[in-house]
Amino acid sequence: MRKKSHLTIVLGSGGHTTEMFRALSTLDMSLFPQRNYIYATTDAESNAKIDQFEKGKPGVVTRTKIPRSREVKQSYFTTVFTTLYSFLYCLFVIFKSKPDLIITNGPGTCLPVCIAGFLMSRVHVHYCKILYIESFACVHHLSLTGRLLYRIVDLFCVQWTELQSKYPNSKFVGISQPTSHNEKIAVKEAGYLFVTVGTTRFDELIEEIDNVEFAAYLKSRGFNGIIIQYGTGNPPKNLKSSDEFKVIVFNKKPDVTDDMKKASVIISHGGTGTILELLELKKPFIVVPNDSLMRGHQKEIAERLVLLIIKIYILQ
After folding, report:
1. What is the spatial distance between Cα 12 and Cα 20, in angstroms, rounded to a whole number?
2. Facing residues of 186 across strands?
3. What is the Cβ-side half-sphere exposure of residue 274, based on CA atoms within 13 angstroms?
4. What is the pLDDT of residues 65-95, one digit of tens each?
5. Is 313 helix (H, G, I), strand (E, B) or coil?
6. What is the pTM of this model?
């Protein structure tokens, strides 16, 4: 796009936002002097990440909060009504801002935004292009949002060749794919173990690590403590701090990068944003897919990454 344009970016939360900023980092932001970020009113994390990404970049940056179309695990029946309300709200937002390009990567928040942009183009009120980048988590199947928007967006991008072969109108980009490599990582000092479940809940994982036998094993391996991020689920009840072994517990933070850096080893859910961050940090980690989310996409992405990345972690 040669002319300078007004860009609208739709953010989700957690992994969607991490993936989106990775994609945006490949763009020349000087071509988009006006940038409007749209995210849900219930999203408490994206604002800080916008600040971090936009720091030092030229242009005017605005932010718009919209009612969320669908919460995680919300029933499809009630989703019809919340999406309708969100759509009417977004129709006004898009009409007022008149973006030249909308970029999204599949959070439920983007559905009413994209439909509003599509309808405005169809009735010749304002023409805007829509770029859809399917989530890195979708290896074999499109997300629900992807299936709904596949035929109406101007450019539909996927990040796995398996999807590109199933959907011939899509374009393979592979923005988030890590480089294939085989390396050994030695953990010389145990330090802290960090357990993270992401922005939702994963009580099964928390329950597995919430026992004194597990803490005793960590101590025997030289760990000084454990940091547990339990999301919207139930907090651990059995682990207690002592002078020899620290237990730090919290539900959510806008950014857990510092906790990842502090830890020697990480046990993580299978969210793509977390996995991509861990690969960049080159930290030893164990992925435990949360099968209750996204039609098993966490398991799909974990199994697919095993074929790309072989790591051997040695605790000395």
Report:
1. 9
2. 314
3. 29
4. 999 877 666 787 888 888 789 899 999 999 9
5. strand
6. 0.74
